[in-house]
Design brief:
Elements (H helix, E strand, L loop, with lengths): L5 H27 L5 H13 L8 E6 L1 H4 L17 E6 L17 H8 L6 E5 L9 H14 L5 E7 L5 H17 L4 E4 L15 H19 L5
Parallel strand pairs: 1-2, 1-3, 3-4, 4-5
Pfam family, one: Lipase_GDSL_2
Keywords: Hydrolase
InterPro entries: Ester_Hydrolysis_Enzymes, SGNH_hydro, SGNH_hydro_sf
Length: 232
C-alpha cells in the first residue's frame, strides 16, 4: 500500500524509472563500447530508484541494498520502502552493506553513500541491510557501522537488520547478532527481521512482490515504534 495518495505518483514515476534505466544502460554501453558490467547496471538501477519518490509529508530517507532498490521486481518503485509513511527517498545500491568491502563495485557502503542520501535533509533515516555483510569480518562490519553513525550524527536513525534469506541464513543470523549489539552499545534503535516468513524469488535471496509488501508493512510498523522516542 502506497501511503497518502502516492499511488498515482508511483505509476507515473514507474514509467519514468523504466525509461531512465533503459536510456542510462544504453548510454553506458555506448560510452564503454561493450556490454554493461554488473557494477554499471547496479549504478543505473540505484540512480533510477533514487529518482522515484513515494508518499508525502515528513522526509524519510532509506539507505539500503538490493532490497531497497527492488532488484528482481517488474516495478522496482514498489520495493518495500514504498510502505513507509512520509515522503520516502531511497538511496539503495545492490550488493552494498555496512562493510566497505561488501561490494565488488568499490566503496559503496552505507556510510560512503550517506552524504548524498541526506543532502536534501531527512526527518528520519532508515538504514536497511546486512545480507551482503554475511561473509565480511566482524571488524569490517563494525568499522562500517561506526562510520555510518558518524556520518549520521545529526539525524534520527533506525537500523533494520537482515531477514533470514534461505541462501544466507547462517550469515544473516551472525550479522543480526552483531548489529544488534552495536546498536545497543551506540544507543541506536534496532529492528530485527529474522522472525519474518517472507516469499523469495528462485535465488532464495531477493524478495518477490508479495515479499516486499510483507516486509515493508512489518518494517514500517516496527520502525514507527522504534522512532517514536527519538529526538535530534
Amino acid at each position: 500500500m502506497i501511503h497518502r495518495g502516492g499511488t498515482r505518483r508511483l505509476v507515473a514515476s514507474s514509467v519514468v524509472v523504466l525509461l531512465c534505466a533503459a536510456l542510462m544502460a544504453l548510454y553506458i554501453a555506448d560510452r564503454a563500447g561493450a556490454d554493461v558490467t554488473p557494477c554499471q547496471a547496479a549504478r543505473a538501477a540505484s540512480a533510477a530508484r533514487s529518482d522515484t519518490i513515494t508518499g508525502s509529508g515528513a522526509r524519510t530517507v532509506v539507505i539500503g541494498d538490493s532490497w531497497s532498490v527492488g532488484l528482481g521486481l517488474d516495478e522496482p518503485a514498489g520495493s518495500w520502502p514504498a510502505q513507509l509513511p512520509g515522503e520516502v527517498h531511497v538511496e539503495g545500491f545492490s550488493g552494498s552493506g555496512f562493510s566497505e568491502t561488501a561490494s565488488r563495485c568499490g566503496d559503496v557502503s552505507f556510510a560512503a553513500r550517506t552524504p548524498r542520501a541526506t543532502l536534501g535533509g531527512a526527518d528520519l533515516v532508515v538504514v536497511e541491510g546486512g545480507l551482503n555483510d554475511f561473509d565480511q569480518p566482524p571488524a569490517s562490519t563494525t568499522r562500517g557501522f561506526e562510520r555510518l553513525l558518524d556520518a549520521l550524527a545529526d539525524h534520527r536513525v533506525v537500523v533494520v537488520g537482515p531477514a533470514d534469506a534461505p541462501s544466507r541464513s547462517a550469515g544473516a543470523r551472525r550479522v543480526d547478532a552483531l548489529l544488534e549489539r552495536l546498536a545497543r552499545e551506540h544507543h541506536v534503535p534496532y529492528v530485527s527481521t529474522l522472525d519474518l516468513d517472507l516469499d523469495y524469488l528462485d535465488d532464495d535471496l531477493h524478495l518477490t512482490g508479495e515479499g516486499h509488501e510483507d516486509f515493508g508493512r512489518v518494517v514500517a510498523e516496527r520502525v514507527g515504534e522504534a522512532a517514536a522516542g527519538l529526538t535530534r
